[in-house]
Amino acid sequence: MAVNFGTFQKDSLSEKIADRLLSLIKEKQLKPGDRLPPERELAVTMGVSRPSLREALRALSIMRIVENRQGSGTYITSLQPETLVEHLDFIIALNDQSFLDLFQARKILEVGLVSIAAQTIREDELGALQNCLDRTAKEIDDAEAFLRSDLELHQHIMDAARNQILALFMKSINNLNIASRRRTGESRKVREQTLKDHRLILSALRTHNPQLAGQAMRDHLDHVEQHLKEMSLDPEREER
Question: Has this prediction a pTM greater than 0.70?
Answer without folding.
Answer: no
